[in-house]
Each structure stands twice: as structure tokens, then as C-alpha cells.
Amino acid sequence: MTSPHTAPSKRRVILEDDIDGFTPAQLLLLQSPEVEVLGISAVSGNIWRDEVLAHTCRLLELAGHPQIPVLPGPVHPLLNSEAATERWEALYGKLVWKGAWTKHWVEGDTVQSAPRYHAHDVVPDLPLGNPGVVRPSDEPAALFMLRMVRQYPGEVSIIATGPLTNLALAQSLDPAFATLARELVYMGGSLNPRQQRDSVSARQFAREFVNSPRREFNIRWDPEAASIVMRAPWRQITMVPVDPSTATELTPELLARMSAADTTIGHALRRREPGFPMWDELATAVWLQPALATQLETLYVDTNTAFDAGYGDILSWAPGYQPGLGEQAQRVVHAVDVQAFEQLLVDRLTAPQPPAVGLPLPLLPPGEGARRADEGTPAGKNAMPVEYENEPAK
């Protein structure tokens, strides 16, 4: 344990995520030498938990960090469910994105691939190869978080880029959890975002907030968990809502810069699909370099947990206007230095990496360009034998 008079040599962090591919947000932390990633906890959201676990294990293999534990969280939200969400839609209208519950797009002209709807216990083969070295821990994510904040009181930052289910469980198990952590940074919520980029992708992603500016998926998946976490007595909470992300986009040009290195990370990133706002990357980047946030505001924030038209929407108050029902003051990021943010990603992701472990990247079929790193192939559906760029790591 660190002495009370000695600062830790590295910044300690736990990442709470619903990772659905080889994503820059996690790589940004792994490629930062000043950071010690204590663990990555998996939560259902964009995809089901078991698929999140597989993607996370494979990412750690390719990034050369097999020592980092991967912790399983619960499969389902605290109260919300697919059936309840379908009932809500029948009453109040269709949601743009429902994560693992999304069966099809409401509109057919989206730039995104078809949703990969499947049962919660199905894990499709991963396009970057299935994990063979890194395995999920047997320790539940909430218990791991509690153990870490007690081992390093006041030193562990928690970055949540998915639903807040694991954090709510940890807080419910031990009311001292939030006070023992150093801080919480989360990507979630929406206040009053507006489209800032003129691209097909930006126009289509604006559909999620143009008529429902207070709704955002990470919070909407598990509103009760979000409210528990937002009312916990954290030393500091930083909210990175949708609002600043509308100024960002993983363009082909930025992706080319980020994947320019002749490393496993570089080769894997070249298979990622461009076009998405950089929601999660903003959260990890703002934690790494707080000066990237160019506009901040203090607000008291909570989540609407009433099963009405605003279920899962963000509630916010300026200081002095809050009802005083447990909601906490949060540092809300409204804007970021996009150029500096992009340069940080390029610098860290093109830096040398530790040796990758496990199976090397599969070769792409002849003539096929970049393949989505977050799009799985159903088991048994491969049209050709898998080849590898070199021999499997020993």
C-alpha cells in the first residue's frame, strides 16, 4: 500500500465498459505509461456481457497486456428489461438504439451495419480471432472494485464508458465505496447536444438526440443503476455527456493516422469501421488530460427512474436549484479541444507497444478492405479457413 506521504508512481484506474470491438478508448489507457489499469469490468449494454468479456480479453492479448484482470458484471440491468423496453416503446415511441436488445433499425438508411441481435449466452466468433490466453476472472466486478478502493484508498479513479450497473452494485454492497475512490468519470447522459459536423454520419447520429435531448443509451439501459451512482458521495464526479462528442468523428483520415504504426495495434485498428462519434475516447482522454475540456459547468445531476415518457432521461439543476434528494454536484464537460484530443490519440496509439500474445491477427480474404473490428462472424459461418499472419505466440 502506498504511504500516506508518498504519491503513487502511476495513476490507478478501473475501466467499466461494454466494449464491442478493438476500440481506441481502452487502448488510450493501455498505451499511457503513466497509467496503471487495475482491471476492466464488463457490463451488458451495446452487446451482452459475455461478448464484452471476449472482446476485452482479445484486446488485452493484441495490446500486450495479458496481466490485467477482466471482471464479469451482471448480465442484465437492475430492473429494466427487454420486455419492459418494448412495452415502453408501445406507449411512448421507438428508441433509436437499444444496445443488445436492438433487432433492427427503425430507419433503413443508416450508415451502420445491421444489429447483431442474439441471446445473452451466445458469443459469436470475433473477427480479430478469439482469445486464447486471457480469460475472465472468477471474481465479480463489484467485489473487485471494492477490494481495489480499500487496497488503494483515495487513489483509484473509475472511468465508466458503459451502463453503470457494476458501480451501483458496488455502492449498494458497501456505502463507503464512492468515498474510498478517488473520482468517477463517466461517459453518459445528454443535456442539449447539437450537430456540429457536416457529414452523413453526424446527421444520422443526430437522430438520437434531436427529439429527445436528455436521453442517452448508457443511462437509458439501466436508469436505476445510474441514479444510485449519481447519488453516491463521490469525492469528484466528471460527466462527459453526448454534447461534446458531436464535435468528434472517427473519420477515415483520423483512423489512418491512428493506425499508421507497424504494430499489432496499428494493424488491428485498420480493420475498424470509421464514421462514429468518439464518445468513450473523450471520457478516457479527459481523464488523462483534463485540460482537453475547454468548457465545464457544475450541475447537480440525477436520472429519471419513473416509468413515463422520460424514463432514463437526465435531470439537472444549477447550484441552488436542486431538490436536495441526494443528487451530487458534477463537473459537466460541454466542449473539448478536438485538435488536441485527436493528436493525443495519434501519439499514444502509434507509440511502441508490449509484445502481443495469443493468436496473431487473421488474414483478410483477398480483395477485402478494412473489416469492422466490432462486427462478429456467427460461429460456423466462416466461408474460408482462417489464416494467420505468422505463427501463434508461444
Automatic annotation (TrEMBL):
GO biological process: purine nucleoside catabolic process
Sequence segments annotated as region (Disordered): 357-394
Molecular function GO terms recorded: purine nucleosidase activity
Pfam families reported for this sequence: IU_nuc_hydro (PF01156)
Gene3D superfamilies referenced in this protein's UniProt entry, alphabetically: Ribonucleoside hydrolase-like
GO cellular component, one term: cytosol
The Inosine/uridine-preferring nucleoside hydrolase domain, residue ranges: 25-342
Keyword vocabulary terms for this entry: Glycosidase, Hydrolase
Segments crossing the lipid bilayer: none
Designated name of the protein: Nucleoside hydrolase
Natural source organism: Xanthomonas cannabis pv. phaseoli
Higher taxonomy: Bacteria, Pseudomonadati, Pseudomonadota, Gammaproteobacteria, Lysobacterales
